[in-house]
């Protein structure tokens, strides 16, 4: 089957799919465009800021790096990433491998509330079975290890992993059903430390630092562990339209400008398009600041633009953005000293000075930002006990301590003096989210 025409559907209520529009392969196979259908033009919503409800073929940006592929706006978040693509290559084995195949074979349970069908009149996604259950975790882990090693798998094995859907990201994972809820289960992938357990320990530590995190639990397997992460884009059977920070930042960037993929820019977007009621947008921006500081201090340098997401609240009314719970937060254990996401005036540098440098983009006075840093530092100071309580071995803690309590990061915590910024707490000045710093 050659997938030259695909159709996008909205599955907020999966029992009543709504037709969104037509998808086409464009830009010499490097991009996918979207043309909204009439019903969506009349009564839908803009999937992202760069996809207004107008009767044109929305095209992905013309300038893409040589090996880059991109679907337009929020459609890009409906496609799988490296791991999902690998599963499609090895399990579904489509004859052609373009963005269209990846969009289609990602199946029904993809990220957010969008779905891809071969038909514009009925939502008919790539068939998958019912989600695997917790009792299948060991078998899933074994099949996933085979896929990672590019070893052949049986038809039965293909079925179970196909039923596990394809979310984004690079590491091996599938979806499972635990007690009627969907969880992402992430397996270890030959790392020298117990990464799934460490992810659980870091996420629960982040919660103690005042960060809203996706709920996690450790799944014990023979010879390894896995971490299950509760999906934040599902709500009692309904699906929440969600976009990555990558999509939100690109959509907010004027055409021709280079998107500033980073915390300050995301904070400005949250303050501008977030939920103004009860200052939720201001609180989200403040929490984003906290997440940036936490990531710096816990050596999570892999904080790239797909590792932050936004929920689109009331999309048919006004489509306000809410910061999604944090996920994929764990030490990278590389000590590279630079983040993936821009932090401030010193670019990606993993330093608290850099974090402070553009605190106004987060709506914070220097004194307030410094107090946030002090609070997060206090929690990071307890990481070793917290990890040990979570069951992380002493050997793994020692390995992580080489970075988290190594010269560079420890000095960030011990040398930071919040009183340096205290005077600014009294001089309240209003800052605008529209002002560029
Ligand atoms: N709890 C969740 N609810 C909904 N979607 C999620 C959740 N966790 C992850 N995702 C989606 O799946 C993608 C991959 O997950 P995650 O980032 O945890 O995997 P990863 O393979 O470790 O990623 P990376 O490539 O950054 O190492 C995320 O970018 C996000 O789109
Ligand atoms: Mg990730």
Q: Nutshell version of this structure?
A:
With 437 residues, the protein is an alpha+beta fold. The chain has 14 helices and 15 strands.
What keyword list fits this structure?
437 residues; alpha+beta; Phosphatidylinositol 3-kinase Catalytic Subunit, Chain A, Domain 5; six-stranded mixed beta sheet; four-stranded antiparallel beta sheet; 15 strands; 16% strand
Task: Please explain how this structure is put together.
The protein is of the alpha+beta class. About 35% of the residues lie in helices and about 15% in strands. The chain is built from 14 helices and 15 strands. It starts with a strand and ends in a 22-residue tail after the last helix. Adenosine-5'-triphosphate binds near residues 167, 170 and 328. Adenosine-5'-triphosphate (ATP) binds near residues 83, 170, 214 and 328.
The end-to-end span amounts to: 51 Å
By DSSP, the count of extended strands is: 15
CATH topology of the largest domain: Phosphatidylinositol 3-kinase Catalytic Subunit, Chain A, Domain 5
Beta fraction: 15-25%
Radius of gyration from CA coordinates: 22 Å
Q: Please write the CATH class name of the largest domain.
A: Mainly Alpha
Q: Which regions have little confidence, pLDDT < 50, spanning 5+ residues?
A: none
Annotation field: number of helices: 14
**Which structural class matches the secondary elements?**
alpha+beta
What best-fitting shape do the alpha-carbon axes yield? globular
Give the biggest sheet.
6 strands, mixed
> What is the H-and-E element order?
EEEHEEHHEHHEEHEEEEEHHHEEHHHHH
Helix content: 25-40%
What is the mean pLDDT? Answer: 93
Task: Catalogue the ligands.
Answer: adenosine-5'-triphosphate, magnesium ion
Query: Number of folding domains?
Result: 3
């Amino acid at each position: 089957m050659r997938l030259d025409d695909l159709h996008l559907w909205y599955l907020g209520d999966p029992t009543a799919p709504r037709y969104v529009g037509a998808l086409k392969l464009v830009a010499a196979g490097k991009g996918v465009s979207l043309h909204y259908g009439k019903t969506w033009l009349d009564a839908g919503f803009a999937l992202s800021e760069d996809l207004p409800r107008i009767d044109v073929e929305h095209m992905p940006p013309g300038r893409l790096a040589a090996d880059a592929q991109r679907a337009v706006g929020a459609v890009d978040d409906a496609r799988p990433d490296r791991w999902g693509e690998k599963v499609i290559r090895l399990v579904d084995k489509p004859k052609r491998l373009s963005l269209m195949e990846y969009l289609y074979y990602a199946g029904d349970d993809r990220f957010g509330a969008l779905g891809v069908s071969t038909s514009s009149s009925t939502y008919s996604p790539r068939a998958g079975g019912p989600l695997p259950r917790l009792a299948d975790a060991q078998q899933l882990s074994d099949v996933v290890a085979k896929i990672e090693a590019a070893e052949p798998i049986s038809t039965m094995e293909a079925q179970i992993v196909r039923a596990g859907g394809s979310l984004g990201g690079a590491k091996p994972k599938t979806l499972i059903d635990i007690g009627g809820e969907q969880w992402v289960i992430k397996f270890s992938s030959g790392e020298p430390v117990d990464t799934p357990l460490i992810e659980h320990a870091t996420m629960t530590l982040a919660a103690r630092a005042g960060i809203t995190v996706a709920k996690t639990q450790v799944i014990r397997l023979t010879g390894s562990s896995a971490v299950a992460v509760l999906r934040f884009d599902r709500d009692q059977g309904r699906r929440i339209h969600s976009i990555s920070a990558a999509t939100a930042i690109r959509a907010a960037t004027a055409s021709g400008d280079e998107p500033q993929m980073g915390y300050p820019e995301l904070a400005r977007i949250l303050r501008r398009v977030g939920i103004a009621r009860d200052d939720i947008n201001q609180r989200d921006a403040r929490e984003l600041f906290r997440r940036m500081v936490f990531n710096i201090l816990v050596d999570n340098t892999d904080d790239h633009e797909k590792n932050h997401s936004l929920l689109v609240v009331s999309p048919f009314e006004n489509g306000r953005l809410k910061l999604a719970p944090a996920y994929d937060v764990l030490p990278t254990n590389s000590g590279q000293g630079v983040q993936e996401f821009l932090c401030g005036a010193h670019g990606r540098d993993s330093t608290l000075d850099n974090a402070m440098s553009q605190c106004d983009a987060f709506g914070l006075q220097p004194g307030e930002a410094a107090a946030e840093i002090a609070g997060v530092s206090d929690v990071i100071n307890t990481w070793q006990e917290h990890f040990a309580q979570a069951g992380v071995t002493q050997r793994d803690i020692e390995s992580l301590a080489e970075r988290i309590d190594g010269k560079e990061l420890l000095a960030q915590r011990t040398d930071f003096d919040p009183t340096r910024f205290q005077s600014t707490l009294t001089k309240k000045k209003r800052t605008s989210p529209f002002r560029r710093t």
